[in-house]
Amino acid sequence: MTPPASPAASPAAQLPATPRLASAIAAGDISAREALDACLQRIAASDLRVNAFTGHTFERARREADAVDAMRSAGAVLPPLAGVPYAVKNLFDVQGEVTLAGSKVNQKNAAASHDAFLVTQMQRAGAVLVGMLNMDEYAYGFTTENTHFGPTRNPHKLSCTAGGSSGGSGAAVAAGQVGVALASDTNGSIRVPSSFCGVWGLKPTFGRLSRRGSYPFVHSIDHLGPLADSVEGLALAYDALQSPDPIDPGCHAKRVQPINAVRSSGIKGLRIARLSGYFDAYSTPAAARASAQAAAALNATATTLWPDAALARAAAFITTASEGGRLHLADLRTQMQDFEPLSVDRFLAGALQPAAWYLRAQQFRRVYRERVLALFQDWDVLIAPATPLSAPEIGAQWLDINGEQYPCRPSIGLLTQPISYSGCPVVTAPMWPGSNGELPIGVQLIAAPWREDLAVRAAQVLQDSGVAHLKSVNL
Amino acid sequence: MTDSDVLNYVKATARLLEIPLDEARASAVALQLGRTLVMAGQLEAFSLPMHEEMSEIFCPAEFPAADPEPEAL
Fold first, then answer.
1. A357 contacts in B (CB within 8 Å)?
2. Bridge pairing between strands A398-401 and A381-385
3. Residues A229, A84: contact at Cβ < 8 Å?
4. What is the CA radius of gyration of chain A?
C-alpha cells in the first residue's frame, strides 16, 4: 500500500479516502492523532469559506484518537473505522452539546446527556467525532440557507448551495474536511446534498437504522444514514451504524445485514432499469445525461415507470407539512419570530392543514407500498437522477426545469420525495454530466426494502468504471 | 376555492390553534397552503376504497426472516 502523504506536508492537505486512511492507521503508517491533526488543519483552512460546521468537538476527538493509538500500541485489533474522523448533522445528540437542529429556538435547550444511538455506534467502530454540521432549520429545506448560522456553500462553487437539509454533511465531505458524515433524509436530505456536492450518500430502508437521540422532523418518514468519500467508506460506515434497537418504535430491523462484504460482487444477473416518465419530465438535460451515463455503465438498456410518483410526492409533501407543523406548534405560538424566515410559513401552513389531507395521504401510502413492492418483482436496481438539476445559486427563488418555472426550495426534492415515501433504500452516486461549469448531479440507485446490498453493488460498479467519483476542490 | 377562501381559512384556523398571525404573515401562509391544496386535490381524485386502512408506523416491507442466498445475488 502506498503510504499516505505526511499531514505536515501541507497544512490544508486532504487526508486519503476513508478506506485507505483506515488501513493506514491500522498498519501504523499514520497515527490516529496525526490523522486528526490533518483533519483539523483542513477544517481550519477551508471552513471560513464553506461554513459546513456549526460546532466542534476537538477535545473529544483528541481523546478518541488517542484511545485508538493506545489500542494499537497495545496490539489490539482495531475496529473498522479506527481513527477515521467524521462529523454529524447538528440534529444528532452529542453528549455535552446542545442539539440545535439548525434552529435558534433550540439554543436555549439543555445539552444532551448522552450520544445519539448512531454516534455511539460510530464510536464503537473507532471513528473520531470532530463536530456538528450545518443544516436547514429543523430539516425543512433543500438548500441549507440557514439565517441563524449562515448558508453552507458548495465547495465546487462557493456561490451555489450545498443542498439540504444536510448541506453541512455534503459540503464537509466534498471539501475533504471529513471522509464520513452522518445525516438525516426525510424527503431527500441525504440525496440532495450528495447530488449537489458530488459525494456518495446512502439513505437506508426506512426503519433500518435507529433514530434514537436524533431530533425528529417527520416521524413517519425520517431516515438516518451516512455520506462518504467512496463506496467503501459508505459501506464501512453503514455497517458500523447497523444494530437493532427495540427502544425505537420506528426501527424495524431485527438483525444486522452487512453490505461491505458483498460490495464487490458485481452486477451480473441483476435486473437494472432506468426510471422514465415522471423522472424524465422533471429532469433537465444535465440530469438526464447523468442518469443515462449511469445506466450505460450498468448495462441498463430498459426503462420502466415508478408507480404513482406524482401522487407519492404530493402525499409526502402533505405528510411532511402536517407532522412538521404539529411538532413545532407550541413554539410557533410563542416564538415565531425566532424561526427561520425561509421556512416558517411552510411550518405554519402545515400546522393549519386539514386533518383530512393528512389522513388521505396515510391511506394512500399503504396502497402505494404494494405497488412499489410489485415493481421490484421485476427489477433489482432502478436508476433515476437525484435532483432535477445541479446546485442552484444561493438565494435562487425559482428553478427552470425544461422551460417551466418552479419555486426553488420545495421543488428540489421532486425526484427524491416519491422514493423516500416508499421507504426504499437508495445509494446516491456522484456523477459529472459536464454542464453548468462541471457541477455534479447525483444519480439514485434504488433497491427494494432491505436490499441495500444490491444498491451498493451497483454503486461499486459505477465507481470502478470511473463514471462516479469525487473531485478535489481548491479551497 | 379562491385565494380569498384560503386566506380566510388560514386566519380562522390560526385563531382556533392560538397562533398569532398578522395580515402579511397570514397571506404568506395562505400562499403555501394554496400550493398544498393543489396536491391534496390530486390525492383526493385518486380512487381509494373506503376499506383501505391508513398506514401503521410505516414499514416498507416485512424484515426478511433470512439473509439472501449468495447464489441468488
1. 36, 40, 43
2. unpaired
3. no
4. 21
Residue B24 · residue A344 · CB < 8 Å: no
Distance CA A97, CA A56 (A): 10
A351:B19 CB<8 A: yes
ipTM above 0.95, yes or no: no
Distance, in Å, from the CA atom of A33 to the CA atom of A71, rounded to the nearest integer, reads 13
Answer whether A314 sits within 8 Å of B40, measured CB to CB: yes
Angle at A475 between CA A193 and CA A49, to 5 degrees: 70
The span from the first CA to the last CA of chain B, in angstroms, equals: 53
Task: Report CB contact under 8 Å: B28, A329.
Answer: no
* Residues of chain A with C-beta less than 8 angstroms from the C-beta of B54: 359, 362-363, 365-366
Reported as a single tens digit per residue, the pLDDT across A199-233 is 999 999 999 999 999 999 999 999 999 999 999 99
**DSSP 3-state assignment of A271?**
coil
Q: Which residue has the cell 442552484?
A: A392
Beta bridge partners of residue A446, listed in sequence order: A382, A426
State pTM to two decimals. Answer: 0.94
CB contact under 8 A, B54 and A311: no
What's the pLDDT score for residue A11? 43
Tell whether the torsion through CA atoms of A424, A429, A434 and A440 is positive or negative. positive
Phi, psi (rounded to 5 degrees) for A101:
50, 35
Q: Which residues of A touch B68 (CB under 8 A)?
A: 451, 453
A-B C-beta contacts closer than 8 Å: 136
Provide the 10 A C-beta neighbour count for residue A76.
11
Q: How far is A225 from chain B (nearest CA, A)?
A: 17
User: Three-class SS string for A126-172?
Assistant: CCEEEEEECCCHHHCCCCCCCCCCCCCEECCEEEEECCCCCHHHHHH
Q: In this structure, are strands A200-203 and A128-133 parallel, antiparallel, or unpaired?
A: unpaired
Bin A28: left if φ > 0, else alpha if -120 < ψ < 50, else beta.
left
User: What are the angstrom distances between the C-alpha of A411 and each of A142, A160, A360, A415, B36?
Assistant: 9, 16, 22, 9, 12
Q: Which residue of A206, A321, A350 is in closest CB contact with B58?
A: A206
Contacts with A311 from chain B: Cβ below 8 Å:
42-43, 46
- Range with the poorest average pLDDT among A20-34, A84-98, A376-390, B58-72: B58-72
Residues of chain A with pLDDT > 70, as a percent, come to 97
Per CB distance under 8 Å, which residues of B are interface residues toward A?
A: 9-10, 13-14, 17-21, 25, 28-33, 35-36, 39-40, 42-44, 46, 48, 52-55, 57-61, 63-64, 67-68, 73
